[in-house]
Predict the structure.
Amino acid sequence: MHKTVPIVVLAGIALLPTTSRGPGRVAPSVAGTVSGSVTYTGTPPKMKPIDMSKEPSCASQHATPVMTENAVTGAGSTLANVVIYVSAGEQGAAATAAVRYDQKGCQYLPHVAVVEVNQPLEIYNDDQTSHNIHPLATTNAEWNKSQPPGAPPIHTSYGKPEFIPVKCNVHPWMHGYFAVLSTAHHAVSGADGKFTLAGLAPGKYTLTAWHEKFGTQTAEVTITGNETATANFVFKATPY
Amino acid sequence: MGKLLAALIAVITIVSTAIFVRHTWWMPPDISVHGAGIDHQLGETMLSAGLLFVVSQLVLAFFIWRFADRGDARPIKTFPGGVTPMVVGALVLVGAEVLALTFVGTKVWAGIYQAPPNPNALHIDVQAEQFAFYFRYAGVDGKFGGTHPNLIDDGNGNFFGLDPANDTSARDDIVAASLVIPANQPILLTMHAKDVGHAFYVPELRIQQDFVPGLDIPLQFTATKTGKYEIVCTQLCGLGHYNMRAYLEVKAPDDFAQWLKDQAAQQ
């Protein structure tokens, strides 16, 4: 029996999807960078203050009310929380360090967490109240788990790429996303709309930018050496 | 032992009666127009049930004291006519008491739950869900937008399933997580449940009503005292039931108008 185990494991590895990912593919001496910004045209929806009065231990953590986050914008029509990633091209080395996701002040921090396929994800409850995190996965397995105050983190991972909305079954206003990607090249735009993808080997790339409300945009980029290429994305915003 | 038990029953009766007579654990002060009727009815129920309780317990104590087994092997005497007339008599007496209380209380109950809607009432839509309450005001147009369960999106603050993209009357609807009302104005709630059964209970308002999925249940009341009170769910509705609450804020009419204006600006 003992001899069969490695064969089963090897068979399992052989069945894994083969991509161009692999450790140490990009030597720093020939790595390019893509940077740019994400903006919008049109009128985005108005973000509303969240009333957390039913959960005093969370409400007291915020001097001013937390706002909804489904379209976070900045000065100059910039758009935050947009995931920019390589959807076609060399995918880079798989990450092994865990991604930390926090439930703090009855909010999900960060609002959009990027986690690579099979990358460990650790979910913490930093609040003095119970949370029940419920990622609404459809391609991956769906689950929900209760986490009382002081409970150890939930260790999990996802095997397939998917944008997964996350909600709390106890606090209806809590809302976030897991962006499960099959690439190591990803970034999330900040409040200033800016992003940077570094460590890209020479080659042709398709970049995709995803926003939870305004959909996706793509851009083609070619890296030839150590240069910094530019890719800007413009989303069409609607108020409702 | 018989005499000790009789004395114990008497002491329990006296102490528990004193707790009720002194209102040691009692309802919080009433803040509603209809509450006096409820309190009156509650008082009558407590008085009639309390009197019967005291009399029956003291009679029980007396009988134990007087007729306890003295160990002299005398035959046990039974109730005249056997057990049947005693059980029938007890059922008739208790049934008559419950029926009498129901008849007396019906008027008070119907005055709250069956009264026709007050034409001056402020309409507020209520959505109960695991594990929160949300309240909707009609906004400046005075009209509620239609609700579409398929559009409910808690994460984006659309707790009622409004369709502001296509329904202009929904655009100014005000949705809040607290029930804010003006004092001395009749309020008409229309209550909906998104998922399972919930309940709306404000002890100070002397009102309690279940939410039932699929039903639009009206509930009327008028609050008379400004202040902040807790709304709790009193139907076990799931894991977070213990945490399902909201606040009722009764404001002076001017303060309420200002609050509504501030809320409208945020929508």
